[in-house]
Specification:
This protein has 11 helices and 13 strands. The chain is an alpha+beta fold and about 350 residues long.
Length: about 350
């Protein structure tokens, strides 16, 4: 049973129904604040399989911006038992707690509201996931917690302080992001789940959708999950950064036999890759960054992936993009009539190609 009085430090054996409790609470919170939230996840020791924990459910709430917290419906949260802990001042985090007894200050749930994908979000999710993937480390953590709980049964602050060294050591094991391209200001790395916020932001912007997917086809979080994060063989999806700032998306894929046939490569045994990309931050348009990206991806595909040919099929009206590709060594191969449904019409496209043997189209 959940519930812990103020200042009390008490551990109980792991309970399998904690996950069910979280799912129920997530549904309640989604109704109260869901429109302002990117994701809600179970965190803390009750989310780590098989270890003892305080009977208190820690819940991680990710928002697009910390400014959104001010827009929460505090009345609905209060009706659900949640109160803002204004005296808890942690940079980058806002804390709410659910009380079942306000006289004893008996807490059952704590909301940790942070910016989705930012430092606190990464720390909490990495620590949880690492311990769930390494049961031996989780048992070491449980042993430490039991020792601290026995030493400080009435001092929550000293109990928490005693865990910091262990937590920091685990967090230090997080591998730094690796980039498939890291040239000057330009970096390209594989997509991470936290990137869904950026993709949804870009793919609900009519200015971006005019060139990519169509203004009648916006992407909410659910659609981004389906289109960008479901496993698909021979496809690599990446985020583009410039000076450390996320600005766009690129994907590469092996052209399979059916698509080779449609493009006229039916007899080709060559290693052919396709590529799609967009710059999602319009402030970075017309600065040569798209050309820099395409050239870097061509080098990566030919030198690291052994691509014999690289193909794209931009719509014929998108002359700005076509000029960029031509500057990077692509040439028009043939017209593809009615090749792509875009904003209610089947649009003509150019099949363009980069041939690694010649450095240009065939």
């Amino acid at each position: 049973m959940l519930g812990l009085n103020k200042g009390e430090v008490r551990l109980v054996p792991h309970a399998t129904d904690w996950e069910e409790d979280f799912i129920e609470e997530k549904e309640l919170l989604s109704e109260a604040i869901g429109l302002l939230v990117v994701d809600i996840e179970h965190m803390g020791s009750t989310s780590i399989k098989g270890i003892a924990a305080k009977p208190l459910l820690d819940i991680l709430v990710g928002v697009r911006s910390m400014d959104d917290v001010a827009k929460f419906d505090k009345k609905r949260l209060k009706e659900a038992g949640y109160y803002h802990l204004g005296r808890v001042e942690i940079e980058g985090k806002v804390v709410f707690a659910k009380f079942t007894n306000l006289e004893e200050l008996t807490k059952t749930h704590v909301l940790h509201i942070v910016e989705y994908g930012a430092e606190w979000w990464r720390k909490h999710t990495f620590f949880r996931d690492y311990l769930n993937e390494h049961p031996d480390v989780a048992k070491q953590y449980e042993k430490l917690k039991k020792e601290l709980a026995a030493t400080y049964p009435d001092n929550e602050s000293l109990y928490a302080e005693g865990k910091l060294k262990f937590v920091d050591e685990v967090l230090s094991r997080e591998k730094p992001r690796s980039f498939i391209i890291n040239e000057g200001n330009l970096q390209v790395r594989e997509l991470e789940r936290v990137d869904k916020v950026l993709l949804s932001k870009w793919l609900t912007d009519p200015e971006i959708l005019r060139y990519y997917e169509g203004r009648d086809n916006p992407f909410n979080f659910e659609k981004v999950e389906q289109e960008f994060f479901e496993d698909e063989e021979n496809v690599m999806r990446c985020l583009v950064e410039f000076s450390g700032i996320p600005i766009g998306y690129v994907q590469i894929y092996i052209v399979e036999e059916e698509e080779k046939l449609a493009y006229g490569y039916a007899d080709s045994s060559q290693n052919i890759y396709g590529m799609d990309q967009f710059i999602g931050e319009s402030a970075y348009w017309n600065k040569g960054i798209g050309t820099q990206l395409v050239r870097a991806m061509v080098t990566y595909l030919t030198e690291d992936k052994g691509a014999d040919r690289i193909v794209m099929d931009p719509q014929t009206w998108n002359e700005r993009a076509i000029r960029c590709y031509e500057k990077c060594g692509f040439e028009k191969v043939k017209l593809l009539p009615g090749n792509e449904l875009h904003e209610g019409e089947y649009r003509d496209c150019w099949l363009i190609e980069h041939n690694s043997k010649t450095g240009v189209g065939a």
